[in-house]
Amino acid sequence: MKRIYQYVIEEHLKAYDQMLFIAGPRQVGKTTIATSAKTLFQHTKFLNWDKLKDREQIVSDTSLLQGLPLDAILKTKPLIIFDEIHKYSKWKTFLKGLIDEYKTKLNIIVTGSCKLDVYRKGGDSLMGRYLLYNIHPISVAELLRTSITNEPLSMPKEISDDLYEALLEFGGFPEPFIKQNKRFYTRWKNLRYQQMLKEDIRDSSQIHEISQLELLSHILEYQSAQLLNYSSLSKKIRVSDQTIRRWIELLKAYYYCFTITPWYTNISRSLLKEPKIYLWDWSIVEDKGKKIENFIACHLLKAVNFWSDTGLGKYNLHYLRDKDKKEVDFLVTENNKPWFLVEVKSSAKESISKSLHYFQKQTGAKHAFHLPYVEKDCFAYTEPIIVPAKTFLSQLI
After folding, report:
1. Of 334, 307, 293, 275, whose CA–CA distance to 395 is shortest?
2. CA distances from 280 to 124, 188, 244, 297 (A)
3. What span, in angstroms and rounded, lies between the C-alpha atoms of 84 and 211?
4. Measuring CA to CA, which residue among 129, 57, 44 is closest to residue 92?
5. Which of 69, 258, 356, 393 is 20 to 30 Å from 302 at the Cα level?
6. Average pLDDT, the chain
7. Closest CA to 391 of 328, 379, 357, 279
8. What is the 3-state secondary structure (H, E, C) of 133-184?
9. Beta-carbon contacts of residue 245 (< 8 Å; ≥ 6 apart)
10. pLDDT confidence of 200, banded at 50, 70, 90?
């Protein structure tokens, strides 16, 4: 299937001279998306830092750009793709020199299976020399459309129950979702986890207590959609509070989990610090209620990242909770102003949450949704309404 990000990359390469950074989890499709751009160019080169022969070319002054006609008059500039180059200790300095010298002669794509700011080992800043695109797993809306518009929202489309349930069960990583085979999914899931934990994290961070970090990651599977309690986790893992914080930041950097912070502007008695935690792969969350909330969280994070990355505005994802324990699961802000609220419920029979009414008034958010498919445009309403998750998610990215 053609991912929506392929259209974004094609537009970038036609319009901008900056390097194109593609970041995202292992096996989310970054390399496939990047290499799909090769069909747009007559001259291309792909180099993977994990391959010794490619690594030799990257550090060589003579063979790196060999075969790419940089000075010829061409309809399109040649393309070079660097995969996992952030593992090179001098990658920032290397890329800065390359883009500064060949900006008008060469298109550059950089991909990485960790956040591209993890490695801060010296080198000059790349500020202004690249644009970053965050690649997320497949979502409901991406299954229904792959074209992009100049607006953040689309009209709702219907997704079949079978397709929706498969996405919830197998997750949004392309290979297991496309195969939809439980035995393959189990083996794929275990292998991906071991590669992330015992190859990527261990080799790059020099953490020796890898078994304790593994225990932390398993505990977080059960704490998805909950507030992070660092003290409680430190007692369970038998490490310090600061170590737990550092390890969670590392797991976030390698796209195992992500956190969202509370929104407190104009909220009386609001919580100010405690984040909520979610996993990038919602399929590994066992509890059905937590899995659905995690599923929605991943869709919302994908939407706010995509809208921000493509220049539609500045979007962020938060939650709402006060000291009286009134809570709404999600708040999406647009240019630092509350836009819409989302409350996730596992039962379709529940009435609209009173907290939705309360926090919509407190924040001034235009929309408020209670998610338990109706054929209606969710964003045509301003009062709190009950909206099936299928309908709501089909209008995002």
Report:
1. 307
2. 31, 15, 19, 9
3. 25
4. 129
5. 356
6. 90
7. 379
8. EECCCCCHHHHHCCCCCCCCCCCCCCCCHHHHHHHHHHCCCHHHHHHCCHHH
9. 230
10. confident
Q: Provide the token pair at 213.
A: 């970090």
Please check the confidence at residue 121 and state whether its pLDDT lies above 50: no
Q: What average pLDDT does the segment 131-137 reach? A: 95
Q: Where are the beta strands (DSSP E) in the chain?
A: 19-23, 44-48, 79-83, 107-112, 130-134, 226-227, 257-262, 276-279, 315-321, 327-334, 337-344, 367-371, 385-386
Distance in angstroms (rounded) separating the CA atoms of residues 361 and 182 = 45
Beta 367-371 vs 315-321: how paired, if at all?
unpaired
* pLDDT for res 201: 82
Q: Are 12 and 110 within 8 A, CB to CB?
A: no
Distance of CA 38 to the CA centre of its chain: 24
Question: What gap in Å lies between CA 321 and CA 289, rounded to an integer?
Answer: 19
Angle value at C-alpha 303, between 216 and 22, nearest 5 degrees: 75
Altogether, the residues listed in the chain come to a count of 397
Distance linking the first and last C-alpha atoms of the chain: 16
Nearest to 185 by CA among 195, 199, 175, 196: 175
DSSP 362-392: HH--SEEEEE---SS-GGG--S-EE--HHHH
Query: b vs e for 311-343, b when ≥16 Cβ sit within 10 Å of the residue's Cβ?
Result: eeeebbbbbbbbeeebbbbbbbbbeeebbbbbb
High-pLDDT (> 70) share of the chain, %: 93
Q: Which domains does the chain have, with CATH numbers?
A: 4-134 (3.40.50.300), 140-394 (no CATH)
Contact 275/286 with Cβ under 8 angstroms?
no
Per-residue CA distances from 231 to 23, 258, 309 (Å): 31, 19, 35
Over the stretch 61-84, which tens digit does the pLDDT of each residue have?
Answer: 778 998 888 876 667 889 999 999
Report DSSP state, residue 312.
S
341, β-bridge pairs:
331, 368
Whole-number Å distance between alpha carbons of 303 and 300: 5
Q: Within its chain, how far is the Cα of 21 from the centroid? A: 13
Residue entry with tokens 């593992």: 87
The phi-psi region of residue 295 (left if phi > 0; otherwise alpha if psi is between -120 and 50; otherwise beta) is alpha
